């Protein structure tokens, strides 16, 4: 397990009871380095959507727990937010919850001359993702998918 994965896993375990107490669910936790700074991000959700107060409450409690456990030696910025409308579908649980919904798929390399596809998420397995694009089922290897996210429909 990488250092990043360990930090994410340990943070998620600290976050579970906090999320339950605050009436939210954990969408994802990520530890990334951007522009020379480390960020520890917790994405929370609830059916009616999260608000600023939810994020603040979870952030304060999580910050206290992280300070108490002190397992991340690097300086980092803690962020707690909603995954947003166009949320990235990184994990199987995200894909499972999004079956039948409109998604945008961006590939690392073009397939049939195109790198981006939009359609309904039809199915997925360990190796592939199938999207119904204009009544045609398109199956992509998971390793070829740079990002898949929910379509934002205005």
* Count of helical regions: 3
Describe the biggest sheet? Answer: 5 strands, antiparallel
Helix and strand composition category: alpha+beta
Described by the principal axes of the CA atoms, the overall outline is globular
Query: What is the beta-strand fraction?
Result: 35-45%
Instruction: Give the CA-CA distance, first to last residue.
Output: 40 Å
Query: Could you tell me the radius of gyration in angstroms?
Result: 17 Å
Oligomer: single chain
Strand order of the largest sheet: 7-6-5-4-8
E-strand count? 8
As residue ranges, the low-confidence spans are none
Element-by-element helix/strand order: HEEHEHEEEEE
Could you estimate the helical fraction of the residues in percent? Answer: 25-40%
Average predicted confidence as pLDDT = 95
What does this structure look like?
This protein is α+β, with helices and mostly antiparallel strands and 154 residues long. 29% of the residues lie in helices and 42% in strands. It contains three helices and eight strands, in the order H-E-E-H-E-H-E-E-E-E-E. Strands 7-6-5-4-8 form a five-stranded antiparallel beta sheet. Strands 1-2-3 form a three-stranded mixed beta sheet. The longest helix is centred in the first third of the chain and has 20 residues, at 3-22.
